[in-house]
């Protein structure tokens, strides 16, 4: 399906686009099932926060309308929305007259092996560290070079994901997913106020934990906390939840809590 720019079919952008020049913008990646964008409210909430913190004006009602139309046309797959500050003259200073651009792209769902969800995945312990930048923490901004470097650390199918820490050694996230630890009936996920991407499925799980009978905690987590966990899983809004069975010398079983949450998430993303 052809990409849209500002609500119209188009396949080109100007060379002065600040998204290309500086990574000046944000993006969202949505799963689309039967023409419906999943977790749309969560994606729009994160987009609104990015718009506010980056001072990048955005008509969210217009964006929601375009996403709905595009998702209906594509039917199934992955919808990527990119928002840039638009074209401007050379230089870091922003042009108040610049018009933000909205880009929609469609792709097929990734062909991940079913075993990732059923028997679990092994994480690669990445040496690339996430820099601390509270002004951008939690946002899905366009500069993802840290993740590019981390993903280049392993090749082949032995590892499905990587584990990333910050420069002070705290556990933060996967390369393209969020991390949860399970201890008893408590779900722990890293504090992302200094760096990292606050995923939409992460937000949904945190919001639903109480009604499902669990306690959810956002906290600074270390590799020691990881080692002490009963269960570990990673998640994102495209593939759902993968149990983690190993990372380096650490190993975990595929537990009951992870299985229960997988069933809940399948209903959110597939039905």
The CATH homologous superfamily of the largest domain is termed D-amino Acid Aminotransferase, subunit A, domain 2
Low-confidence stretches: none
Q: Characterize the overall form.
A: globular
Average pLDDT, all residues: 95
What is the SS-derived class?
alpha+beta
Question: What is the class of the largest domain in the CATH system?
Answer: Alpha Beta
What is the β-strand count? Answer: 15
How helix-rich are the residues, as a percent range?
A: 25-40%
Write the element-wise H/E pattern from the N-terminal end onward.
EEHEEHHEEHEHEEEEHEHEEEH
- CATH-defined fold name of the largest domain: D-amino Acid Aminotransferase, Chain A, domain 2
The CA-CA distance between the termini, in Å, is 23 Å
Percentage of β-strand residues: 25-35%
Q: Examine the secondary-structure arrangement and name the CATH architecture of the largest domain.
A: Alpha-Beta Barrel
- Largest sheet entry: 9 strands, mixed
Radius of gyration: 19 Å
User: Please, how many helices?
Assistant: 8
Domain count, please report it: 2
Topology readout:
Elements: E1 4-5, E2 8-9, H1 18-22, E3 25-33, E4 36-37, H2 40-53, H3 60-74, E5 77-84, E6 101-107, H4 115-118, E7 121-125, H5 145-151, E8 161-165, E9 171-174, E10 178-183, E11 186-190, H6 200-208, E12 215-219, H7 223-228, E13 231-236, E14 240-247, E15 250-251, H8 256-270
Parallel strand pairs: 7-8, 7-14, 11-12
Antiparallel strand pairs: 1-2, 1-6, 3-4, 3-5, 5-6, 8-9, 10-11, 10-13, 13-14, 14-15
